């Protein structure tokens, strides 16, 4: 918090539709925090991505990482590192570099359907807690030097890592979250086949769960879980799982609840958090003011809720509630972007949300 009784938040523009949806989220945060009685947010704009290659010679400038070390929360636009010119082209997006640098081990991905907006599984309201620092994604495995390698040109080997320490952290985050929701945690693994690794994940989550007697716990294999989500998505509350399973399940559940354009996410450690839409930079629709800003706006609301818990500041929770209600009301008015079947522009949608925030009592 700053001396003026407000907050400093980092702002990292994205590629593609980033420069359209990030300002939309900023407008909503500014309107909602003002309405909740918080002084003006101090936005700290940091260079990142395609534009930073031109201005700073790197997609992720060292100065940006150093500045992030001084912040506890920031908004991040989507990035498209595959389109960067050589030698900046990379498999690891700037967001991956930042997640690694800041140790943001939890990827929190809610999937909630909107009343009045089409959903394959209406009534879905769940949160996926995806462990984001290890597992079966080769780029994150640092224990053996490399997570993926080819001993001969015709053989490729990938390994997965599950540790008690990392599993405990994501499990605690999942159970703490469940205590604020419907008090139900579902552990997803594949312990019948990957017995040692995902078996350890399941067992450690169960051990952590023993400290939360009020929380109901069940567990499923990843393959069975996809079936349960499609058949009875509304039965699930908090799902905790390893990296790759979480990646797959969160796209599935996001789509079951609605479109990719409404799926928010938060990446967090115990001390820092980053709001990031679950979707990518959507280069196919960039620059046309038609992208859906809901995912970015709701990611910003999640960031305010995280800050509210951390600072025990009810005004931030109030600001987040105002944003959520205003988004619901805007969609309820039939104002939606093309991906949701409407004809609103990105900026028009944001203006409608801001108007709802301003007119709410
Ligand atoms: P990345 O590797 O960056 O995640 P991706 O291949 O997963 O990229 P996205 O950029 O997420 O792709 O886009 C997938 C599809 O969803 C595209 O057709 C895109 O236009 C659409 N899309 C993504 N985000 C939005 C949004 N906010 N509004 C409308 N359409 C979107
Ligand atoms: Mg993607």
TrEMBL record:
Keywords: Oxidoreductase. It comes from the Bacteria. The keyword Transcription does not apply. Gene3D superfamilies: Isopropylmalate Dehydrogenase (3.40.718.10). The keyword Methyltransferase does not apply. It holds the Pfam family Iso_dh. PROSITE patterns: IDH_IMDH. InterPro entries: IsoCit/isopropylmalate_DH_CS (IPR019818), IsoPropMal-DH-like_dom (IPR024084). Residues 8-353 form the Isopropylmalate dehydrogenase-like domain. Belongs to the isocitrate and isopropylmalate dehydrogenases family. This is Isocitrate/isopropylmalate dehydrogenase family protein. It comes from Microbacterium kribbense.
């Amino acid at each position: 918090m700053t001396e003026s009784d407000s907050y400093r938040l980092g702002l990292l523009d994205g590629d593609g539709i980033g420069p359209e949806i990030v300002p939309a989220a900023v407008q909503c945060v500014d309107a909602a925090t003002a309405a909740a009685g918080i002084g003006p947010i101090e936005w700290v704009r940091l260079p990142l991505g395609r534009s930073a290659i031109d201005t700073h010679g790197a997609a992720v400038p060292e100065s940006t990482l150093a500045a992030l070390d001084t912040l506890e929360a920031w908004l991040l636009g989507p990035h498209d590192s595959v389109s960067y010119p050589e030698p900046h082209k990379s498999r690891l997006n700037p967001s991956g570099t930042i997640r690694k640098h800041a140790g943001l081990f939890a990827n929190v991905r809610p999937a909630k359907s909107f009343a009045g907006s089409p959903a394959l599984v209406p009534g879905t309201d769940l949160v996926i807690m995806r462990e984001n620092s290890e597992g079966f994604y080769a780029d994150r495995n640092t224990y053996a030097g490399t997570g993926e390698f080819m001993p001969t040109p015709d053989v490729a080997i990938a390994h997965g890592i599950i540790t008690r320490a990392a599993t405990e952290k994501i499990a605690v985050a999942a159970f703490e979250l469940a205590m604020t929701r419907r008090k139900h945690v579902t552990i997803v693994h594949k312990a019948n086949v990957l017995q040692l690794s995902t078996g350890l994940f399941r067992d450690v989550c169960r051990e952590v769960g023993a400290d939360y007697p009020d929380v109901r716990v069940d567990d499923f294999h990843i393959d069975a879980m996809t079936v349960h989500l499609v058949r009875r998505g509304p039965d699930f509350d908090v799902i905790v799982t390893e990296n790759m399973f979480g990646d797959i399940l969160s796209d599935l559940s996001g789509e079951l609840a609605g479109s990719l354009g409404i799926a928010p996410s938060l990446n967090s450690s115990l001390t820092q958090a980053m709001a990031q839409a679950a979707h990518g930079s959507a280069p196919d629709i960039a620059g046309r003011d038609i992208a859906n800003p809901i995912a970015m706006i709701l990611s910003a609301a999640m960031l305010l809720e995280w800050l509210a818990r951390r600072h025990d500041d009810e005004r931030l929770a109030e600001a987040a509630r105002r944003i959520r209600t205003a988004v619901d009301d805007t969609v309820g008015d039939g104002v939606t972007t093309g991906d949701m079947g409407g004809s609103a522009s990105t900026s028009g949608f944001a203006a409608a949300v801001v108007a709802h925030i301003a007119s709410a009592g």
